[in-house]
Automatic annotation (TrEMBL):
InterPro entries: Transp_IS110-like_N, Transpos_IS110. This is Transposase IS110-like N-terminal domain-containing protein. It holds the Pfam family DEDD_Tnp_IS110. One of its GO terms (molecular function) is transposase activity. GO terms for biological process: DNA transposition. Residues 5-68 form the Transposase IS110-like N-terminal domain.
Amino acid sequence: MCEPYVKRNKTDAADAEAICEAVVRPTMRFVPIKSVSQQTVLALHRTRALLVRQRTATINALRGLLGEFGLIAGKGTARSEDLRRRLSQADKDTVPDEARQAITSLFEHVDQLRERAETVEAEILTWHKANAASERLAAVPGIGPLTASVLIYTRN
C-alpha cells in the first residue's frame, strides 16, 4: 500500500511511518467507505452479472454441442429456445439418447440460471424503488432501473 514511502526494512514502525507519510501527501486519494446498503445492492448487481455470464456461457456450449450433431440456431439467448425445439424434434439417429440427456441437463441449468438472475433482478428493483434518486435517474431516456441503481449506489 505504501511501498514508495518505505525507507528501510519492513517493520511495524516503518510501516506506520510510511502510512503517516502517505496520508499527509496532497495527491493521496482516499476511497470512501460504502454503507451496508451500498454493499448489498452492489453485491446483488455482481451476482446478477455472474449469473447472466454463466447463462450465456452455457448457451454457447449448447450451441457448440448441438452444432456437432447438425442442429444450428442463431446467436443470442433468445435463440436458445430454437435449439431446444430442434433437439426435441431431432430423431435418435441424429442425437443419441446419452447425448440428449446430457444436453437436456444443460438446458435445465440454463433455466435455473435464468430464474435465479430474475430473482436477483427483482431484489435490485426493490432497492431501486426505495431510492428516490435512483427512480429520478431512471426517468432519463436510455437509463433503466438497473443502470440507475448501480450508478446511485456506486457513488458516495
